[in-house]
Each structure stands twice: as structure tokens, then as C-alpha cells.
Write a structure and sequence with these properties.
alpha/beta, five-stranded mixed β-sheet, single chain, about 400 residues, 15 strands
Amino acid sequence: ASARVRWRQGLPVPSPAHRRTVEAVRAAVAEVPGLAVVGAWVAGNGLASVVPDARRTAAALVVPRPEGRVSTTPRGVTETGGMPQTVRVGTRASVLALTQTGHVADALTALGAGDHELVRVRTDGDRLTGSLATLGGTGVFVTALRDALLDGRCDVAVHSFKDLPTTPAPGLVVAAVPVRQDPRDALCAREGWTLATLPEGASVGTGSPRRAAQLLAARPDLRVVDIRGNVDTRLRRIEDDLDAVVLAAAGLARLDRLDAVTEALPPDVMTPAPAQGALAVEVRAEDAVAGTPLAAALAALDHRPTHLAVLAERALLNRLEAGCAAPVGAHARLGDDGVLTLSAVVLRTDGTASLHRSDALTLDGSATDDAARTALAAAGLGTRLAETLLADGAADLADLAAGGRA
């Protein structure tokens, strides 16, 4: 026999708008260590959906002991209240990664987390050749580091924030975003040339479709060459076969190579990648819970204006469902007046058309101490501006998966 029952107050089939709301809330809640959301509105109707999802979520908030029992003692503190063990900080082995990770590790030690050691992890982005877009784009420099965190080989991982996928990793949180370096792109050219004075037909190297599209939008006569390699390898191309290369100013600053810059490109000429210049300090969720020396050091290291700006930029990228293969730029800034301003651009890959939009949000002063509410507001600004871009035809300019669902 069979029967069909209609539950009048049941959740309907999730709409795209509902899914976007859930994604935005989950991303904002992930900013608060030890906090998660569950229920039918997240997992779908019925106990068969709600209970397994709640169990998985709860399991991600506790620390499994090696013998399989569960401990509520946060990692990094002994059960007798002793001093924390050495903090193992995971990093890629490139010169830039080691430099920026070293700065974070030193800061954590200075802020009371205890001694540290660097753990080098090789990622797919380090091992494979080819353009970043063909390698899978966002995530190729991240997955191995996240695996090292989850299986206990390291306690902290330091990423260039723009390399992180926009979807949070289960069991992990970005517990700190230090003060952002200069987010602009920098032109490094022969003869001290600027973008305006480069000779007609000059060859400019970059591995970024976003940079390539904006270069061609400003100078259609340029010959853009796809390049890979570390900072020194790219700069050497200027001496060998290129007239110029475009690199992130933040990386050059961290390596003390700003002497190579001939022009810092303003954001209205070349809008940076979302989160460019920012670092993400990622840990297991239980290690960010207040009460441990490491958690206290992470909280002190976090620069809230940078964190909120990056949240807005990444929420825009998430709604557009655009990775590094899509020519999308975004730049946000939180002013002293509490106004969070976000500007973004979507371009055709050949630079022949572009769509610039901006939006702003005044953060409620009474809510600035409420981390979850403020994070949700910042993410909401990014999502709202992305919706504006899609409504104005962004999907027609670039290959945005979200365009087909908007």
C-alpha cells in the first residue's frame, strides 16, 4: 500500500536563492570557532536528512583522541593545564611561502602561542606544470596543506588567501587574517616603463586571465604571454624574452623586491584579485576555541578590517562561481567611518568589454563586536554586488557558472 502526505509547513524544494542564503550563512558562521548551523533549512526535510547532518557537524566540533575517545580539552593545552606543545606551522616550500609563513609563525610566538616549527608541504601547484587555469585554478596550492592539518601533521596552515576555494573546508576555520599588504598589481618593466609608456606591441607576462584581460582593456596593442614560476623566475623573463611582467605588489614587498616595480597599477586600471595581498591562517575548528594560548594568539593576530573586506570580496566570487580562470577582480575597504566599500569588475577574456560596479554598506556600530553578524553583513554585501553584476550581464562577458542559475 502507499500514501501521499503533504506537510503544509514543510520546507519546499530549495530554490537557488535559498541555497545562496545557506552558503552565505555557513560562510559567516564558519568565522566563529566552535559554532555551526544545523536543521532542516540547511540539510533538507526529514529526520533522515537532519540527523546525519547534525552528527557530522557535531563530530567536526570535537577533538578525537588517538584511541577513538572524545576529548573536550582543546588541542595545545594539556589536561593538567600545562604549557602548549610546539606549534607546527604548515607551509609550501617556495621562497615567498616560507617568507610569509615565517612572519606569521613569528607573530604567533610573540603573541604567546609558544615555540613553533615550520612543516613544509608539497602541493599540486608546486608539483605540476602548465597554466594555473588548466591545473584546476583555485585550490591547487591548498589541498595538501589542508590534508596535513586534518591528519595532524601540522597545527596551523598559512595560505595566500586568494588561493583558497570560497567553500569552507569541513572541520577547518580561517582563524586569523593579518593586516593586508598592498593589494595592487605591480608592473615590472625594462627601461622603467609604465603601462602607458610601454612600446607598442610590447610583450607582457602574466599567468592570470584577470590581469591579461585588464592589460588588454588598457592597451589592446600589447602581446600578453602566459608564464609560470616563482617571483625570481618571472622577473628574469624581463632580462630574457619579455618587456615586462605583472606581479602582486604584496609578494614583492614580502620578498623585499619592490625595487623591481616600475609602476603600481591603480585599482581603477587593474582591479586586484579577491583577497589579493591578504593571508589566511587556517586551523582545525577545535584549535580556534577560546581558552588556549594558540587561540588567544590567533585572535590577537586577526585584523578585523582586513578580514571583513576579504569576506566581502570572496562572497562576490562565490556567488559568481568564478575561479582563477575567470577574469574577475574585486577590492573592498573598511573606512574609519564604518563604511565597507566594495568595487568589482568582470571582463571578457580578450579585454574588449568590461562591467564595473560598486556598492557600500555601513556596518552597525553596535554590531561590530558581534563577529557572526558583522561577517554575515560583509558577505551579504559581496553577494548583493554579485547579483547586480549578473543582472547587468556579467555572465555574457565571462564563463561564470552562476550565470546559468541566476
